[in-house]
């Protein structure tokens, strides 16, 4: 605990528990969290309440995946002694803050949010946007500010959400005439998004182009076999292209032996190296990366009670922090009567 | 308690605590509540959280008026043993329900709500509607359904809010595949809205045409003097008009001696009865009505601790009910993990 207290920055991060986590999550966020937990105070939120904004038709899916995602966290090395893992829906204070912050942002402002605009387009919502979806940046502002987070890891495309949060923070502080809430900064990861095995820009469960962190040996083998390479590289002796070649993008991310990888790339480009050889190396790397994760995951999954206990303790700790902020906010809004 | 339990209908009603209550409230709702508390279970909400949706610039006003409005309630005869008086903001479960219900209603549906449309017009919000204002019918649905209220006293113009609530109730129950929430009925009072002393359709603090329930003798006298009558009734011997004549509207509402009133009306219409005489009678009626209210109010105001105690007990009782419903809702949404 004493080391926790010495850390100046506080990170809020998390996932919507809508399915098992995959290599895209590993590269984009999980591996960073494993590092960050030593440098910063870190709160990791299982955003089940937020997940319902577009999964109201299947709440069972969200429910089941809370424990599944927690297993993924622990399996990759997130340490509950260093990171506070908690369940969003178990902290009613987050909905209280959302409720009051809704008065600090106009409908027009929410409709202008580029992230929301894009997500509305992706989901074909058009005029039938659920109100909970339009207002979810306000809910994010509640989550971030409840913990007085100073750093929020997000992709480039999520920066408008951070701006929206800081607008609400500033508006509230001005209203309260006190610096109660804290502005945050986006922490954009150096390594960008991992493409799907099919070459699509994003690895995503709904696109069916993922390799899960709990994948079996044969699932990994099958996925590597399907991994997109260079469609113009028909014969071994032909020169191959690296650009858009997912096998090499993955090797860049996961092959620790950078020297051999550089040689392999040169060989591939000048011709004479078959996709089979490249994929063999990729499979080695992925089997090596995922095996210990899968094994830890399987071992942890034996003791569901332990996972629940970790979530319970993390949620209690997180709730204390959120309750303190909410109490300050409500006091400033004249909502304390006894 | 046993009588409470035998009552089949449950009423949810309340006020936004933004100022002292006046005769308009008395006629339109308070006097009914004094009756209803014997017939129905009755929960009366001091809607401080909702009041902030358009008073975010002056939360102190809302805070102060919570106790003031509670004083008005007790002074008119609302009995905390028969009615549960509670403070909205002290029941976080109401914001939780609001949060989840936001997923059950589209932005387009909220924008079509005629009550909201009209209130947006009145407040000159136009494109700059605070999100909390657009979504407040969802918050109302949360309040009503949290208590499984079956009757909600509202004016004619608020009926769309009840429809919105029932839409959410039906949608949720369909989703949960269980009858967890309960539909409610609007209870439109027989006696309509009391006009302002200036003849405007509505008695309203912001229009400055009210007589408060705590008005002093001289305030009542002054208000009666200013009360709008028949502008064409210049000389005593002229025939007078009753239509739009606020003095007579008030006499209709407050003069218990219906026979004398009928005679007075006939006399006024055929000519020979001066406004002074009419107003003298009106003042008698109002002084008689308000004196005991004012006196009880002043006595109660001496013991703020007692008022706070009543609000605390009412809020605890209300919270138990709301928490039970919220627990059912969250269970159905897969949001119970421990």
Number of strands of chain A: 5
User: What's the arrangement of strands in the largest beta sheet of chain A?
Assistant: 1-2-3
Largest interface: A-B, 54 and 53 residues
Q: Please write the CATH class name of the largest domain in chain A.
A: Alpha Beta
**Percent helix range of chain A:** 55-70%
Q: Which whole number gives the mean pLDDT of chain A?
A: 94
CATH topology of the largest domain in chain A: Rossmann fold
Multimerization status: homodimer
N-to-C CA distance of chain A: 33 Å
Q: Choose one word for the global shape of chain A.
A: elongated
User: How would you name the CATH homologous superfamily of the largest domain in chain A?
Assistant: HUPs
In angstroms, what is the radius of gyration of chain A? 22 Å
Largest sheet of chain A: 3 strands, parallel
Number of domains of chain A: 2
Instruction: Quickly give the structural class of chain A.
Output: mainly alpha
Spans of chain A of at least 5 consecutive residues whose pLDDT stays below 50 are: none
Number of helices of chain A: 15
Amount of beta strand of chain A: 5-15%
Instruction: Give me the strand/helix succession of chain A.
Output: HEHEHHEHHHHHEHEHHHHH
CATH architecture classification of the largest domain in chain A: 3-Layer(aba) Sandwich
């Amino acid at each position: 605990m004493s080391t926790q207290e010495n850390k100046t920055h506080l990170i809020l991060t998390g996932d919507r528990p809508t399915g098992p986590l995959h290599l895209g999550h590993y590269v984009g966020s999980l591996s960073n969290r494993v590092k960050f937990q030593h440098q910063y105070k870190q709160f990791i939120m299982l955003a089940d309440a937020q997940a319902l904004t577009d999964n109201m038709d299947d709440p069972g899916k969200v429910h089941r995946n809370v424990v599944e995602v927690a297993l993924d966290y622990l399996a990759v090395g997130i340490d509950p002694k260093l990171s506070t893992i908690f369940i969003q829906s178990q902290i009613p204070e987050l909905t209280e803050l959302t409720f009051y912050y809704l008065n600090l942002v106009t409908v027009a402002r929410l409709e202008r949010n580029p992230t929301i605009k894009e997500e509305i387009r992706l989901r074909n919502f058009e005029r039938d946007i659920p109100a909970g979806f339009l207002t979810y940046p306000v809910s994010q502002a509640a989550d971030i500010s409840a913990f007085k987070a100073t750093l929020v890891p997000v992709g480039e495309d999520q920066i408008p959400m951070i701006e929206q949060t800081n607008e609400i923070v500033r508006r509230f502080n001005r209203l309260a005439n006190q610096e109660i809430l804290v502005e945050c900064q986006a922490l954009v990861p150096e390594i960008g998004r991992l493409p799907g095995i099919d070459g699509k820009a994003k690895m995503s469960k709904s696109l069916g182009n993922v390799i899960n962190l709990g994948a079996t040996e044969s699932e990994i083998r099958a996925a590597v076999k399907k991994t997109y390479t260079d469609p113009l590289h028909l014969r071994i002796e032909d020169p191959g292209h690296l650009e858009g070649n997912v096998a090499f993008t993955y090797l860049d991310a996961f092959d620790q032996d950078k020297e051999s990888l550089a040689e392999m790339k040169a060989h591939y480009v000048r011709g004479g190296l078959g996709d089979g050889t490249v994929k063999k190396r990729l499979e080695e790397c992925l089997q090596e990366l995922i095996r210990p994760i899968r094994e830890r995951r399987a071992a942890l999954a034996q003791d569901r009670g332990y996972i629940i206990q970790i979530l319970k303790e993390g949620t209690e700790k997180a709730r204390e922090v959120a309750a303190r902020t909410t109490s300050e906010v409500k006091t400033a809004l004249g909502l304390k009567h006894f």
